[in-house]
Every structure is written in structure tokens, then in C-alpha cells.
Amino acid sequence: MNFLYPGFLLALLAIAIPIAIHLFNFRKFKKVYFSNVAFLKEAKEQNSSREKLKHLLILLSRILAVVFLVFAFARPYIPSGARVTPGQRNVVTVYIDNSYSMESVNKEGSLLDEAKRKAKEIVRAYGLNDQFQLLSNDFEGRHQRLVNREEFIRLLDELKISATSRSLQQVINRQQADLAPNRNQLTYFLSDFQKSFVGTKPLQLHKALQYHFVKLNANELPNIAVDSVWSLSPVHQPGQAEQLVVQLRNYGEEEATGLPLKLSINGQQKAISNVAVAAGQSLKDTLRFSGLKAGWQKAVLSIKDFPLTFDDELNFSFQVKEQMKVLELKGDLSENFISSLYGADPYFKLSVMQEANIRYSEFGEYSLIVLTGLKEPSSGLAQQLKTYVQNGGSLVVFPDLEAGSNIYTAFLNAMTLPAVKELNAGAAVTSTIDLKNPMFKEVFGEIPKNMDLPVVNRYFSYQDQSRSAKQDILQLPLNKSLFAAYGLGAGKVYLSAVSLNLKDSNLPKHPTFLPLMYKAAFASAREQPLYYTTGNSDLLESQRITLLKNQSLKLVSEGYEVIPELRQTADKTLLYVADQVKKAGFYSLMKGDSTLAVIAFNDNRTESDMHYADEDELKSLFGKQQASVFNSKKDANSLNILAQNNSTELWKLCLILGIVFLAIEILLIRFFNHKKTIPLS
After folding, report:
1. Which of 110, 342, 501, 632, by CA, is between 20 and 30 Å from 309?
2. What contacts 41, CB < 8 A, 6 or more positions away?
3. What secondary structure does DSSP assign to 399-466, as a single string?
């Protein structure tokens, strides 16, 4: 048992004084007693033993009464083993998990309501001078400050379910950021402790803090979520057929059958399906639709699944463009194959720049750039094209074989592409096609037995490079490349070994040329992501946006506005939204009154998994670090005792015992062997 230091000194002093006084009175009594020994001889024989016992009991009762009363003011306590210094101010942080999973219901109501009640019980167990801090998944600035009990309860009552999802280690790190000396810092975590929230890695705790994890018990519920979606269509064209793949996941223990799945675009139903998802499994389903008009599309995939509904919808957006812009950098003015190819399709808008009049600043406006027969490609052009490709553009290079290997070697090396080894001329050679390459996907209904292949008369052979990003699409004998793709940053370069001159090969008139160039153009379409995740996606990407001095961008959704921080790159505009986007839905990227893009946000799907970590799994993540785990149902009494400054205080017991011994002293004086006193002479 320990004491507060000043109270302990008072206790010693208070014990010594009554003992000294009582001994003094007892000696005086003895002196009088022995001076009248003759007179009291007979009385002594009868009463001495009883009187001694009475005085000793009174003395003992009085001493014990004073001792326990002084101990009560000294506030003795039994340490609980935790790192708490009585006398120092307590700073109590209470984390309330306000994620979607806390909407689950048990006998106490929703888990969030139960967490609020437990939090109030905890803070009310502490003193008026203690300070408190509320922490939630929102990581709000107003929750960072220390407040008194009344302010804490007010903030607690305002707390609502949030779409933001955190990990347990993130919450611990956030709380550790506010450490300060000379105070007792205690932390309570009230959560259902989903496995996705807890994680599997060992938790890193701070030695100066006391951690108490209070597990709230939720009823296990089946849940099916619209997990993700992606498009199989390389580009989105007005009126063309579209294909989407949607993935559903069943987090429950039973199979879900007859589940309706619906796709709506701009408020109109476009596709519907009926699916069955096995227990604990995922299912992919393909939806087909058409009839889209040019512009931004707001699409929603939805199911009907009760009682958990926050993950029953998935928002995504994409743009249907009227045209795709293609640029030809032309060195051979007599060549018209590219103009004939893309000019025949109204979807492609072809622009031509001659070699002597290339405008580098316009490169970012085009999805695909095609180089045809440049006589003297410069290093400056190479650097501009390299930047363009690294930022997501696509480039096709048809060299001029008459220009010579040295000129093209310098040009290609500047773009980190293989150098020209030599110019090969002689007997015609037949190429081979990699029909498994994505460039030829859905081109051939079936593989022909005697396929007509391109024939080459003259070509550049390139030095071998051990590049994992290289893909041979058309090959020549001895593993030499005829047409190959090279990954470069976020884009691709398609390098041909022949020119578009029919003297060099029949490739420009071969049936494979059209799908080859179309797929290169479609693969170059730089689409924004179909959707982002609230709380996780802080950085958004857009095609480069030019702003005047006083112009700004904003994200607008149903009266809610977000002003992002901007950063410009060569071909992109990066938008930093931090944690400003908290609600799922569609946000319009506005420049003044003009809508530049529509961006979709969805809630984090980690909340969909309603499996929870038990007490043993939580304790295993602490290792040898000191932390306490409580079950809100089984350990309610233990939790209340713990909240009492994290130690067992004995002052109430001492006060009661002091009063008891005072009562005993009074009873002894009043009733113990009460007889008429014999006067002394």
C-alpha cells in the first residue's frame, strides 16, 4: 500500500501526538493512584484488571480512529501495476470507432451508441481536474485539443457515423503525436475490432502510454458488397457497344441466390442481371449495353442486400468522346497511308505537322503521335517525345531507312530505345505474328491455317536489349523485331523496323496494318480512373488544365465544395484533396461555370468484411508490450474499477474504519464496566 507523501507525514505526526497525550495522562493517573494506595487497596484488588483493560481498549480505539482518519486524507492506494503517478493530472484519450461497421445492432442498440455510453462512464469516473481528448476516424482538428468533462461529452454527442476508414495502427500513431511530460496519459479504444481494422502485423505501442482496448460485441451479419468494376472497352464511342465486368463479394457464411444486379447510367437503367454468390467467395459478371451519347457518364451499379446497405452501390464515371485526336509528324510528304487509315473513320481527328514545322507545346493534346519517314529527327524532338510518352502518351515510329543508321541511333538512344545495328537488304523474308498479343485480341475469329504474312525487303535490325517491358508483336527470322512495343513511363512506344514505303515491305497494305494501328490508338486513350475511394485517394489526376492568373478549380457535389491544391506537370494536372472528400458520390470538376470532368468516389470496401478479432487475437498483436483488453459485456465491472485513476484507492475504507473506531471508543467509555466512581482524598 502506498501513500501520497505529505499525507503520510501528517499521519505519523497525528499518531504520535495522541499516544504522547494518553501516556502523559496515564502516568498522572498512576501517580495519584499510588499516593492513595492504602485507601484503594481493597478497590484495586477488585477493579485493577478491568480498569487497565478499559484504558488500553480506549487508547487503542482512539489511536486507530485517528490513524484511519489521517490515512483517509492521505489517500492510500494499491497500485495496479500500471504507470500512473497519483497526484499528477490525468489526460484521458478515448477513441470511438465511428466507421460503418459500428451501425451494427446488438441488445444495447447500435454499437456506436453503446460506445458513447461506455465512453461517458469512463470519463465520469475521473476527477474534475482531469482532461480528456476525443478521437475518431475523422481525425478532426477540433478533436486534437484537450477539454474538460462537459466539453468532451458535448463532442461525443455530436459524433456520427463516418465513411472514413482507418487501421488500428493509424489510430495509435495519431494518439501518440500528442505526448507531453508530467501527466498520466491513458488511452481507451472502443471498437468492434474488425479484422480488417486490426490487421495482422504486430502493433507498435509507446511505453509512456497506458492502452486499454474495449471490445464491443456485434451480432454477426451476412453481407454482400459491390466490390469493384472495370471496363473491357478500350475506348468509349457514341452509340457503340460497351462491356463492363463487375465483381461482387459475399462476406457471409451462406450462399446468396437470386441477387438482382442493376446498372444505371445518368439515371437510366442500362443493364440488369440476376446472380448467385457462394459463401465467402467472389463472383465476376459481365454486363453489356450500348446507346451512350457523348459526354460524361454517371454510372451506378447496385444490388439489394439487407441489413447492411452502405456497400450496395458502386459509383463510377467515364467520358464518351466524340473524337480521338491523332497527330502525324510527317517527313515523307508522298506517304498517305496514315491519312487514309485514320481519315476514313470519323471517330479519329487527324492532324499533320511537317518535319520542318513541329509545335512541341501541342503534343499533350493528342492521344497518339505517329512519326513517318522523318529525315533528320533531332535530339530536342526525342526529349519532347520521351516526356510525352512518360506521361501516358503513345508513340509509333516508322523510320526513314534512307536517313541512315547513325541518325536514328542517336534519336532512339535519346528516348532510351535500342540503337540501330544495321540496315538489312536482300532477299524477301516473311514475318511471324504473335496472335496472343493484346493488339490482336478479337481481331481473328479463328486462327487461319495458311495465314498471309507481311513480307519485308529492307529493314533496320536493332541491337538486342534485355528489357522486360519489350513486347514483340511482329517478328522476323532470327528473333529480329519487325514491330515491337516498349514500355516507357506511363506510356508506350511502338517501334517499326521498316518504313511505310512499299519498296521496303508490304506492311502498309497488309490486312494486319489496320488493326495494328487502331489498337495502338485505342491503347493510347488516357482515361481517368473509373472511381476513387473516400479517405484513401488524396491525389487525383487530370489532363493538363490551363488556368489564368485568378482562376481556380473546385470539386462540387450537391452544394458541397472542395478546393484542391494544384500541381502542374508537363502533361498532367495533379489535384491534392487531402481528406476533404468524406462522402461517396459524384463530384464535378469545375473551372468557372465549365465542367471539365466528373469524378466518382466510393466508400472504402474494407468495412464490408464483418469478421471480428477476438481478445486472444488482439493480445497476440501486443507481444510483450503492456496493454489491457476488455470485453464490454463480460468485463464491465473490471472496466469501472480500472477507470478509477487506474489504481485501487482505499480512502473510503479508511474513513469508514476511522468512524467505526471512534464509535467503539464512545461505547467503551459509556458502557464498559460503568460503576460509581470512588472519590479520592
Report:
1. 632
2. none
3. --GGG-HHHHHHHHHTTT-PPEEEEEEEEEEE-EE-TTSGGGTTT-SS--SS----EEEEEEEE----
Residue in 304, 278, 282, 280 with CA at minimum distance from that of residue 228: 282
User: What is residue 292's predicted lDDT score, i.e. its pLDDT?
Assistant: 94
| CA pair distance 648, 658, nearest whole angstrom | 19
Rg, the chain, Cα only: 42
Amino acid identity for residue 352 in this structure: V
Q: Are 174 and 95 in contact (CB under 8 A)?
A: no
pLDDT, residue 444, reads 56
Can you give the pLDDT at residue 32?
46
pLDDT of residue 127 exceeding 90, the answer is no
Q: pLDDT band at residue 443, thresholds of 50, 70 and 90? A: low
DSSP 321: -
- Closest by CA position to 352, among listed 515, 343, 491: 343
Measured CA distances, 659 to 7, 67, 76, 665 (Å): 19, 11, 17, 10
Q: Residue 271 is which amino acid? A: A
Q: Residue for cell digits 503513345?
A: 394
The mean pLDDT of the chain is: 84
Instruction: Say how many C-beta atoms besides its own lie within 10 A of residue 17's C-beta.
Output: 11
Q: What is the pLDDT of residues 451-480, one digit of tens each?
A: 778 899 999 999 876 666 788 888 888 888
C-alpha angle 279-283-284 in degrees, rounded to nearest 5: 175
Q: Could you give the angle at the alpha carbon of 250 between the alpha carbons of 247 and 253, nearest 5°?
A: 165
* DSSP run (H or E) holding 369: strand 368-372
What integer pLDDT is reported at residue 665 of this predicted model? 83
Cβ(408)–Cβ(371) under 8 Å?
no
Residue 209 contacts by C-beta under 8 Å, 6 or more apart in sequence? Answer: 175, 176, 179, 185, 186, 187
CA distance 194 to 327: 53
**From CA 138, how far away is CA 244, in angstroms rounded?**
33
Q: Does 143 have pLDDT greater than 60?
A: yes
pTM of the model: 0.73
